[in-house]
UniProtKB/TrEMBL annotation:
UniProt keyword Transmembrane present: no
Keywords, in A-Z order: Hydrolase
InterPro entries xrefs: Isochorismatase-like_dom (IPR000868), Isochorismatase-like_hydrls (IPR050272), Isochorismatase-like_sf (IPR036380)
Family membership: Belongs to the isochorismatase family.
Stretches assigned to the Isochorismatase-like domain: 9-213
Keyword DNA repair tagged: no
Protein's name in the database: Isochorismatase hydrolase
GO molecular function, one term: hydrolase activity
Amino acid sequence: MRPVSTTPTALVLIDIQEGFKHPTHWGESRSTPEFELNVEKILGAFREYNDTTRSDQSPERLPALIIHVHHHSTSPASALHPSHYLEESSTPSVAPLSFAAPVASEPVVIKNFNSAFVKTQLESMLRAVGIRQLVLVGLTTDHCVSTTTRMAANLQVLGDDGGPDGNGHGVHGVVLVRDAIATFERGGYAGETVHAVHLASLEGEFAEVVSADSVLTMLGQGPSC
């Protein structure tokens, strides 16, 4: 991962929505028990970094773009269909989870497909401001996170930085935060197994895979800071 202060960077939060709390729809086994806490920490650190950058008004320190991607399924059976609400609640299932709710200055991209780039404005938003590094967190590892990662690399949305740099770091400029991404059991395989296998498949070919602590350290809020 390259320094956010000198690399035009976007934090993209994928599908962190109420519908994923459904007690039976997704399965009982979910990976990454630290997911919620790490997403909250990373989002807070990016916001604090931006606040400091804007108050310092230093031309040598670049602000980061924070984008929320929310899934609105076209299938009425999906727990993420806009017509659904949480059980015995007025909260829509497509609403963001509280720890990852956007603030007014953070754009929200609505998607209907696994990829955050299909029939959305995400690609044009990234290209318009010359983003050269994507930091991805969210749900789920093997579906929307994986599909978005692969398309980010294949579409070369990061311009000239959209390819491997030869040393195993910054592959395609896409960074996956392993412990701020999660998925559920699939086909009899536990959520942790599905999560690990899909990250292993993406690492090196489509993205660099890092820990939440390494991102926080880069932003000046890690364990050693």
